[in-house]
Specification:
The structure holds two protein chains of two kinds. Chain A is an all-alpha fold. Chain A has two domains: 496 residues, no CATH class; 37 residues. Helices cover 81% and strands 2% of the residues of chain A. In chain A, a hairpin with a 2-residue loop joins strand 1 and strand 2. In chain A, helix 5 crosses helix 10, helix 13 packs across helix 16 and helix 14 packs across helix 16. The longest helix of chain A has 45 residues. Chain B is α/β, with parallel strands linked by helices. Chain B has two domains: 174 residues, Rossmann fold (3-Layer(aba) Sandwich), CATH 3.40.50; 66 residues, no CATH class. Chain B contains eight helices and ten strands. Chain B starts with a helix and ends with a helix. At the A-B interface, helix 17 and helix 18 of A face strand 6 and helix 5 of B.
């Protein structure tokens, strides 16, 4: 066992994750802008994110095989395939966080940008991006945690009889487990712990800084950077953005109302080059998106027509049971989401309001969330199974394990979103609460839950979507400790797992299709409508400086 | 006239009632103080103003007095008893108008009655009374978003008054309002806070606007220096209603201006 290799593999994995998180943030900003500007795109985009966020990473293996490994081939093919899988783990919640932030930019700030006739780039740089930073930052914790949750299946994966792997700590752990080299596993987990804690501390600093700088009148003081030239340079950029947002907040009061006639007259003149460029970029993006959708629809139709009629009859006959299994899984997801929400609004609230508690417990929560549960869960199983099996019926103890795995895979989404949301509540609101001696319940009901409503919607949405990952692993885990298997009686994810292991890809595809429809409806009904409500009523910033 | 009756009813005898700050100091670090050695005390039916240059800590001082921000040194007494945590007997009106966008006007006002655990009908009645007092009857079901800045500040005032406070702290309450609204609210505020229907005994106003403080205050504390100290305590002996055209009014403004620009007592 080479300790240096383990250290390098940890650095490679963390570097890969951070790079892909940056990519997802940049792409998330672009897509969120398109979504808030175009209702039709939004109607497709929101369910699209929900569907993709709900589909566990493992389900992307066939795409990975076809597009990257066969298309690109070689070492780069495997690397890009692994990057794609990690990207899938990190991107969706960042995308939905950016969308939620863009959707809740205060109306009068938008009016200022319209008044000053800012173009897309300037509006993004001076308004949308600074406004989204606290919410995007809150999602970085979840993204980092999610990437590590899936790291053992992202860096090394098996398609058919062939195993593909790229250099990283996930690959090393998988190899050590196969070789029964438990010392190697422990060392790897130790290095992961060091890496996770280091990144967590950095993210923690970043989140406090982002809330202080980009939140409106929050209780956090703005900390200036060090005297290092690089620090000064970044500080300059931050101060520029903060001041710009400040200018927006205050200029809104004095900005004249938009005069439609004047704008119409002015827009009749020759269009500036930047405007034409903007139109061109929008058109190209729209064409690309349209092409992707046409391709997906075309491929789906081809696939559907290739299925024999007898197979369709079997699919339809199995549908009632599949819907029942999906219902059972939704109950599990509901239990996991409820537990996560309760943890968020109790522990998350304490951490957000007590600096001392956050210094001690926040890194613990962050480390637990970022530590890959599938890597250590068998140890929990081995330690607790004799106890649970002694007094609980087998089915019930299995449900508890599925619940634990589901919880570990997603509790942090709503937790971190709520945590940052509470920190972003303006000082004035805290003063009103303290001045009026509001108790915990009154604070929660009247002020904190409404004030964090947009954050909660993002968090709950991501929690619901991501609970499937843990449930999928927990519902069907053959030989979890070498002698026992974890297997629920009924569950959609178990159905997919069993059928995939038996090569019945059609059955798995059919239930995935049904699931995608349900998730898309949920995306439209739940996420988009609640986000619209948040936009109308729960923009906390509008309660303070909008006069 | 309401103003006159308030002035006539004002008791001259000093009592233990009121808010008092003794030797207050505040700083972001213990060595770098923003202000120090601040002593002030309110008297019944008196509006007290604090003026000082930007950054001297006026807003922080009234938060110290309301125990919303702890002072690094000194004590705060309410009716002769030391207080260390916020109380609904001392109510703060913010410079940045703080209304909750998801609550209607009535709900915003009722917020300050939650800690009293009143029956719903009683809380409704008090909130409506306070809204009537500030001239917002008929707007109970409106959201703050649907109202002007002046109306929103009136919601905040009604919320503060509904809690039946003894002391009202006002942190530049008119600064975000346009001049016409601010002028009309200045005219109303004195009668509003010392209206017999309210529980208020005194109010503290922080302001940059010298005309505003001379128009409203019975007593003015002047802060200046680094770290800031109280350089003067001035009683405003101008009969009410006060006029900006009154030469005496102008003398007070001039004196305040000189003290703020030179940092010395005149």
């Amino acid at each position: 066992m080479d300790v240096l290799t383990i250290a390098l593999a940890t650095v490679a994995t963390i570097g890969r994750i951070i790079g892909l998180i940056v990519l997802s943030v940049l792409s998330g900003w672009g897509l969120a802008y398109l979504a808030v500007k175009n209702r039709r795109f939004e109607n497709v985009y929101v369910p699209f994110i929900n569907v993709l966020e709900s589909i566990p990473v493992i389900a992307f293996l066939p795409i990975v095989l076809l597009v990257f490994i066969q298309g690109l081939g070689g070492v780069w093919g495997v690397e890009v395939a692994a990057d794609f899988l990690v990207f899938d783990a990190v991107s969706w919640n960042v995308w939905i966080g950016a969308y939620q932030a863009f959707k809740t930019v205060p109306e009068h700030l938008l009016e200022v940008s319209e008044n000053y006739r800012f173009g897309v780039a300037r509006t993004m740089w001076t308004l949308y991006i600074p406004h989204s930073i606290p919410r995007v930052t809150s999602n970085l914790f979840s993204s980092f945690a999610d990437a590590f949750f899936y790291i053992t299946v992202s860096e090394v994966f098996t398609v058919g009889v062939k195993t593909y792997q790229t250099f990283g700590i996930g690959t090393l752990i998988a190899n050590f487990v196969q070789q029964q080299n438990f010392l190697g596993v422990y060392y790897s987990l130790g290095f992961i712990a060091v890496g996770v804690v280091s990144v967590t501390i950095m993210l923690n600093m970043l989140s406090r800084r982002s809330v202080a700088k980009y939140g409106v009148d929050t209780a956090f003081e703005i900390k200036r950077s060090s005297h290092h030239w690089l620090g000064r340079r970044f500080r300059g950029a931050d101060v520029f953005r903060t001041r710009t947002l400040y200018l927006f907040q205050h200029a809104g009061k004095f900005a004249p109302l938009r005069h439609r006639g004047r704008f119409e007259r002015e827009s009749n003149g020759p269009k500036p080059l930047i405007h034409l460029l903007e139109v061109a970029v929008k058109s190209v993006v729209a064409c690309i998106i349209m092409a992707v959708f046409i391709y997906v629809i075309y491929s789906s139709l081809l696939l559907a027509f290739s299925v024999p009629q007898t197979q369709w009859r079997e699919f339809l006959a199995a549908t009632p049971y599949l819907l029942y299994s999906m219902g059972a899984d939704y109950l599990r997801v509901f239990a996991v989401t409820l537990a996560s929400l309760l943890l968020a609004i109790t522990v998350g609230y304490v951490l957000a309001t007590s600096h001392k508690a956050s210094l001690i417990f926040a890194p613990i929560v962050q480390a637990v969330s970022a530590f890959p549960a599938p890597a250590y869960f068998p140890l929990i199983f081995i330690a607790t199974f004799p106890l649970f099996s002694s007094f609980l019926p087998r089915g019930f103890s299995t449900e508890i394990y599925v619940f634990i795995l589901g919880f570990l895979s997603c509790f942090y989404y709503v937790f971190f979103d709520f945590w940052i949301g509470v920190q972003a509540i303006p000082t004035q609101f805290w003063e009103v609460m303290r001045n009026n001696e509001l108790g915990f319940r009154a604070r929660m009901r009247r002020i904190i839950l409404p004030a964090t409503f947009p954050y909660l919607i993002t968090g709950i949405s991501s929690t619901i979507n991501s609970a499937w990952a843990g449930i999928e692993i927990g519902e069907f885990w053959p030989n979890i400790d070498g002698t026992h298997s974890l297997e629920v009686r009924d569950g959609m994810m178990k159905y997919i797992g069993v059928n995939m292991s038996q090569g019945q890809v059609g059955n798995a595809a059919w239930v995935s299709f049904l699931f995608a429809i349900v998730v898309a409806i949920y995306g439209l009904v739940f996420t988009r409508n609640l986000m619209d409500l948040a936009r109308k009523k729960y923009v906390v910033e509008e309660g303070v400086y909008a006069t | 006239m309401a103003t006159l009756s308030v002035s006539e009813n004002r008791g001259d005898a000093k009592s233990q009632s009121g808010l008092e700050g003794r030797d207050l100091a505040y700083g972001y670090t213990k060595t770098k103080l923003v202000f120090e050695h601040i002593n002030l005390k309110t008297s019944d039916n008196e509006l007290l103003a604090i003026v000082g240059p930007t950054g001297c800590g006026k807003s922080t001082l009234i938060r110290n007095l309301g125990c919303l921000v702890p002072a690094v040194h000194g004590q705060v007494f309410l009716d002769g008893t030391e207080i260390k945590k916020p109380s609904s007997k001392i109510s703060l009106i913010h410079q940045s108008i703080a209304t909750f966008p998801w609550m209607t006007t009535l709900e915003n006002v009722k917020l300050s009655l939650i800690c009293k655990k009143l029956p719903r009908e009683e809380a409704d009645r008090i909130a409506r009374e306070m809204l009537e007092l500030v001239g917002l009857n008929g707007y109970e079901d409106y959201y703050p978003k649907e109202m002007s800045g002046g109306m929103r500040q009136k919601i905040a005032i009604a919320r503060s008054l509904a809690a039946s406070p003894e002391i009202l702290l006002m942190d530049e309450p008119f600064v975000h309002l346009d001049e016409l609204t601010a002028t009309s609210m200045r005219k109303e505020i004195y009668q509003l806070v010392f209206n017999p229907e309210t529980s208020l005994k005194s109010a503290i106003l922080v302001s940059h606007n010298l005309n505003e403080v001379v128009e409203l205050a019975d007593r003015i504390y002047v802060m200046n220096g680094h770290p800031a100290t109280m350089i003067d305590e001035m009683r405003v002996n101008i009969p009410r209603p006060r006029s900006l055209r009154d030469p005496l009014f102008f003398d007070y403004v001039d004196k305040l201006h000189n003290e703020l620009s030179t940092g010395k007592k005149f």
